[in-house]
Structures are given as C-alpha cells and as structure tokens.
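Obj.: predict assembly geometry.
Materials: sequence records (below).
Method: joint structure prediction, all chains together.
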Amino acid sequence: MNNAAILVIDDEVQIRRLLEITLESNSFNVESAETAKDGLRIAANHPPDLVILDLGLPDEDGHSVLKKLREWYTKPVIILSVQSSEENIVKALDNGANDYLVKPFRTGELLARIRSALRGMVSEENDPVVDAGDLQIDLAARTVKKNNETIKLTATEYKLLSLLAQHEGKVLTHQYLLREVWGPGYISQSQYLRVFIAQLRKKIETDANRPEHIITESGVGYRFIAKE
Amino acid sequence: MNNAAILVIDDEVQIRRLLEITLESNSFNVESAETAKDGLRIAANHPPDLVILDLGLPDEDGHSVLKKLREWYTKPVIILSVQSSEENIVKALDNGANDYLVKPFRTGELLARIRSALRGMVSEENDPVVDAGDLQIDLAARTVKKNNETIKLTATEYKLLSLLAQHEGKVLTHQYLLREVWGPGYISQSQYLRVFIAQLRKKIETDANRPEHIITESGVGYRFIAKE
DNA sequence: CAAAATCTTTATAAAATCTTTACACCCCTC
DNA sequence: GAGGGGTGTAAAGATTTTATAAAGATTTTG
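Observations (raw structure tokens):
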C-alpha cells in the first residue's frame, strides 16, 4: 500500500519532525498530534491507515489512549515508548497494539515494521490503467484491451504504444520514438516508425483510415489522444 | 485463537525446550524442528498457525528459509535471532516476517507478541488456492489438480507454475522467471525455460498446441491466464 | 549400488517478428 | 500538372525467437 496515511501521536517535537520527514520521504502521508486528545480527534475525523502512538503523552496515560482507540479502530497501531519494561510491552500488545518499539529507535527498522504491519492489510487492488475510452492499457500487466477484448501486440508494438500513451496529448518526435524503442543507432530509420505505426493503427483503431488515437503530426512526430 | 499450533524452528536445544514448556503451558500446541530442512517439511505437511523461526540455523541461511516459507505460507512468522543489526531486522521483515525478537528474549514479551500476531489472523481464509477454471493450484499443499485429478509435477515445474499463477494475468519476463526458479546465475539460459514451459503445457493444458493458461509473449516472457 | 526420476544439453523444425523494398498517396510549390 | 518531401500500406525476404523431441548427465530413491 503506497501513499498510506499515518498518524503520529507524540509530544516530543523532535520525534514528530523526524517522523514527518522520514515517513514523507518514503511516500507516506503524515499527520501529527501532540496530545492524546488531539490524536484521538484526528483519528476519528480522518481515520489513517496506521497509527504511531507514544505511550508517554502529557495529558493522558498511553495505555488508556490505546484502549480508547481500539474501541473502534481496527488498523495497525505501533507503539513508541521510552519504557522498555516487559510489563509495559505486554500490556500494550495485549491492549491491541500491533508492535512496540523502544526509543531511541532506528528509523530503518521502524519503516520496515510499518511496511510489515501494512502488508497484512492490502486487499486486491487493481493496477494503474491508462484509459483512452475504448482502449485500456495496463502497464503492470502489459496488456492492451479494446472494448474489453485483449489485443495481441508484439514487443516492439507494445513499447511504442506505451510510450505514446504515457505521454498522452503530447507530440513525440520521430527521433525520440526511434531512440527509445529501437536505440540511439536508429534515429534515421523513420521508415520503421511508419511501418509500426501502421500496424498499431490496424490493431487499435476502429477505422485505421481515420485514426482517433494515434495522430500524425506531419514533419514532427506522433501524438496519442485518449478521448473517446 | 486458543490451542493454536505453533512450529518452532531452532537448532539450540535449550531454546526449543524453553519454548515447548512455555508455549504448552499457555495452551498452544507446539512442534519443533532442529534444521531448516525439517522445519520446512513439517510446515508443509502440517501447516501450523504460526511459525517461530531462528535465523541462525546450521544448514541454511535463515533469510532464505523465510523466503521459501513465504512462497506459500500466509500465517504469522516471528523471527528469533541473536543478530540485532538493523540490516538483518529490515531484511527479515521485508521478506515477510511479522515480528523480530532479539535473543535473549523475555518469554512474557514473546507470548504477548504471539497473541498479537494471532489476533489479526482470526478471520483469515483457508489455504490459498489459485483457481483457473479446470486447474486448481493449492499453494499450501503444493498440489495441482486438473479436472479434480492430481497432476504430478517436478519441483522445478511446480516452482515455475506457482510463480506464473501467483501473478495471474501479468507478463513475467524470461529474466525474472530464470532468476526466481534457477537463481541469478541462470538469467541467460532461456532454453531451460522453453523446455520446462513445454513440459508444463503438456501436463496442464487440454491441448498443448493451443495453450489456454500459459501464454507466450514473444521476446518478453510468459503470462498465466486463469479464466476458462 | 542399481533403477528411476529429473535436469541439462543439443539439434532441428516451426512460428513469430523484424527489416527491407516497392509503390501509392496527399499536399504543397513552382 | 509536374516534381518533391513526407507519409501509409502491403508483402517478400531475413532474422530472431520459440517449441519439441530426444540423448546424455546428474540426482534422487529404494
């Protein structure tokens, strides 16, 4: 799960800063709270995918905060605490925490434990798809569908189409396409392009004589249009 | 979950004794293995509800054992290790471990972490089965059935098929398949792939000349299709 | 240790894809 | 309307990739 939302509840400003920077640079969305009260409010208004909770908050006992949170919150909670006593760890885990790290902690380990905790949560998510009306290009699965029928493309055809589709709306020059698909030694082989563009149009256009997706920009290159 | 079955894989006899006594007195069913080989065999024959794995086994690197286990095992795995380096911890967690405890550990904490790990599992499904119409691949039992008849596959054939099936719909490149099945030193041995794909098709396809499950993507790789 | 099973290697045919050629077309200018 | 640049298309080779069988080599099993 990428871009997961993480709520950090900790009263130490240095820790909050450190976590904000570390987590955001690992493409998590971070919200912070300084007190138990704030933390619980934010969690309720805007349920995150994971909570990092400091046990040593000033306004309320951490174990009690955890209990309140667990009354309704089912996603992972990771405890951070200066307390390393077994009693505290067992209590927190039995109150519903998924993990417990003693401060000072190593950021790499924290990140790995976050990934581990989030891993169990992923549901069948679909791949990112370039949608062009009657055409769907699934870059992860490497498939192209037209009106829900899978179209068989050769390696070169697919490479060309995926380049065009990823820069939807923009003109890609002959030079650029030749270099990216065939390699730097082929930038003068414009005929290759014509042949493969023609083959692509035959496969993906409803009427290859009146192309709607792959548009010729005479003298410059080709442009992919998504619109129906 | 009470009476959960726990498999302990550790070569130190004192640890095994300690865990057997501790866990059994907390009403878990315990099985023990002394080596990676034994551990993997027991896990496969008799899948436990949770595995406790020592990283420092004599016969095989612990990270490699974890990876093999995770190819099909979806329930919690807790790592025990004398290694406390961040590198080891991060690697183990990213290889699919749910938790990591450094030896010597406190039994109360271990018990709490076991309870925590089992807690998330209550509503988990049974054996993960990849269903492909006339084909059923049971990743936990390592069996493949076609029209309810069990098919005999060699270790390599099974590994290849299970990789393809786990990424249903996606193209897996030659490189990737060779690296995962044969190891990083074999990524140029495309002929191996062709031979084993042909053997697999002969076993699982209704008509090996017109494959419906294992599709060739010329110049790129192969793709597994589930739908009938 | 011998037999069986499996894996590796080689050889060859078939299929798929890429490259090249040839020519038609369009649009513009002269 | 002739000529020329840029483009589209079909189809014939050329090349690469794939499928398959089968012979050795190796490992596993009894």
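Conclusions so far: The CA atoms of residues 31 and 195 of chain A lie 53 Å apart.
To do: check interface contacts against the pulldown list.
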